[in-house]
Design brief:
Layout: E1 19-21, E2 34-39, H1 49-63, E3 67-72, H2 85-94, E4 97-102, H3 108-117, E5 122-126, H4 130-133, E6 140-145, H5 147-161, E7 166-171, H6 176-196, E8 205-210, H7 224-233, E9 238-241, H8 247-257, E10 263-265, E11 282-286, H9 289-301, E12 308-311, E13 326-330, H10 336-351, E14 361-362, E15 368-370, H11 378-382, E16 391-392
Parallel strand pairs: 2-3, 2-4, 4-5, 5-6, 6-12, 7-8, 7-9, 8-16, 9-10
Antiparallel strand pairs: 1-3, 11-13, 14-15
Helix pairs in contact: 1-9, 2-3, 5-6, 5-10, 7-8
Amino acid sequence: MIKKSVLTVLTVSFFFFSLSFQTSGTAPGTDKTYTFGLLLVGPYNDHGWSQAHFEGGKYVEEMIPGAKMIYIDKVNPADRPGITIPQLVDDMVEKGAKLIIANSDDMKDGTREAARMHPEIHFLHISGDDVLTGKAPKNLSNLMGRMEYGKMMAGFAAAMTTKTGKIGYLGPLVNEETRRLVASCYLGAKYAWEKVLKKNPAALKFQVTWIGFWFNIPGVTADPTQVALNFFNTGYDVVLSGIDTTEAVVVAARKRQEGKEVWAVPYDYIGACEGGPDVCLGVPYFNWGPGYVNFVKESMTGKWTSKWIWMGPDWKNINNTDTSTVGFIAGPAMSPTAKAALNEFIKDLGTGKTELFKGPLFYQDDTLFLKDGEVAADKQVWYMKQLLKGMGGQSSAE
């Protein structure tokens, strides 16, 4: 995902401790194995973004004979101050990695540098756009899932459920990716509110609060637990999460125990509802396995080409873990009525009957985003400049 920060060189003496190897069968780096490396911005078991990637790597091991994963997690300035991506890549290459996957845009510059240093190694950078901008060397590709659809479903579920008409969004940092994702949530909520429930548009309030990064860094970010509490304590009864960890659903579960009728929608990981099943409306999640398999096979067979891939759901079954990069699992707290409406909404998204990025749409400052009848091109959505009119919250970090 798009996560921007600065990594400076201080020391490398301590980083080796969490380089973890999957050593079932033949050891990594031998002639009978194909070793690939995974750099994770957060913990491999965070029940969010990084765990989804980790399990995508395990899927590769299951699906491709001889494929073995090595990984380093917590690759971020708070957990590894001073460590650079090229340093981590050097170690993985020494351990036999032929393909290295970097799962955060925070790693964009370092991944590009490492790819130029190791032209014989293939690199897959998740969420980036180096191929689009022409900055990528030939051994570097980009992959991202069209989570915009999953976020539309999340917003739809929130609007079908809210009793107060006040929906909060727990946002990470502000950039083009996070703007397009939260805008997708808003459009899904707006569609459910106006087209399905036939309610007054002015009665829907959609507020975004940014914490400053993809997960809590004490002393650096706003505390996501406190942000979620503030939403629930001021009349918001559904909180949608855009961060990599599960605070929204955990806090909602706590408020439910206090007798409050509230709900939450976590993010990223198929099992995220486990943090509060009684309040969880569902989770939009990434399924990286199929995309990873394609790139690993291309690397193994010498058919690698530098490309930018933005993979969408398999509309035949968005929860088919062998084919769909983006899915949505309805949570235990979603009502039968909301679930039926959501299923129809998903069907209409898949057939193109419903198109939410269609004008007229305006940015927050009233400038035109899409003219009447215009359907957004990929780059218009990818490089979203502001939040949309009707949304509360900042469009930039300034």
